[in-house]
Design a protein that fits this description.
Strand content: 15-25%
Bound molecules: benzoic acid, fe (iii) ion
């Protein structure tokens, strides 16, 4: 066991965090989430942060695209941010990130501009937000290290259900770290990091022009 944890440590550098990956694939991160947040019925549910969040994403305007270079299926993401009592949270901030269509985050690949598939957006005065992106794809978590050995030893696959990450925050409210999942995805039942929650699954609705718009509202709890 100590040898395995030492190997996990040796796999870490400033871009690779094998310990977060280990915690996530063991289900430990999701267990901590459930213990910390309980069953949330009225506000947006949490799910895991993952190892690829990078603070300081570029600020973008309402409706802008986070895809600086990507040829995936166009997707417009829209919705509102509100408090549990229904009050619109104008000025709320959404920090969103996802992989490019090749299944890699910008932090994993030098070929992508560092701001690719990442952005911070401010909701308008009615709490409405909008951004453009591409339809998220399923991707395999890095399995070339000790975590991959563990998955294979357990007969498990390394795939994550397709998703968009978001951290949503607003004044005097608790921020939420969450995902939007695609209902039409084969890994919803077997996400390798146990991150899927029913309330976070949405329809990416196919349009005649080849785009897949999706709507998702975020609901935040006031601070105690
Ligand atoms: C992610 O969704 O970015 C992620 C989460 C856990 C492990 C690897 C990746
Ligand atoms: Fe992810």
């Amino acid at each position: 066991g100590i040898g395995f944890l030492t190997a996990v440590g040796h796999m870490c550098d400033d871009k690779r965090q094998e310990f977060i990956l280990l915690s996530d694939t063991l289900g430990l991160s999701s267990l901590v989430d459930i213990i910390a947040h309980g069953v949330e019925e009225h506000a947006t549910e949490w799910t895991i942060l993952g190892p690829f969040y990078l603070p300081g994403a570029p600020w973008r305007e309402f409706g802008d695209s986070i895809a600086e270079s990507d040829d995936g299926a166009p997707t417009l993401v829209t919705g509102s941010v509100r408090s549990v009592d229904g009050t619109a949270l104008g000025g709320a901030v959404l920090d969103v990130w996802q992989t490019a269509s090749n299944g890699l985050y910008a932090v994993q690949e030098d070929a992508q501009p560092t701001g690719n598939m990442r952005g911070r957006f401010r909701a308008d005065g009615h709490g409405r937000y909008a951004f453009r992106t591409v339809r998220p794809v399923s991707y395999a978590v890095p399995d070339d290290g000790p975590v991959g050995q563990l998955l294979r030893a357990c007969g498990r696959h390394p795939w994550r259900a397709a998703h968009i990450h978001a951290i949503v925050s607003a004044e005097e409210h608790r921020s939420v770290t969450t995902h939007i999942f695609d209902r039409d995805n084969e890994y919803l039942e077997s996400d390798t990091v146990f991150g899927v929650k029913d309330s976070l699954i949405e329809d990416f609705v196919p349009q005649a022009d080849g785009s897949y718009p999706v709507e998702h509202d975020f609901v935040l709890r006031p601070v105690d």
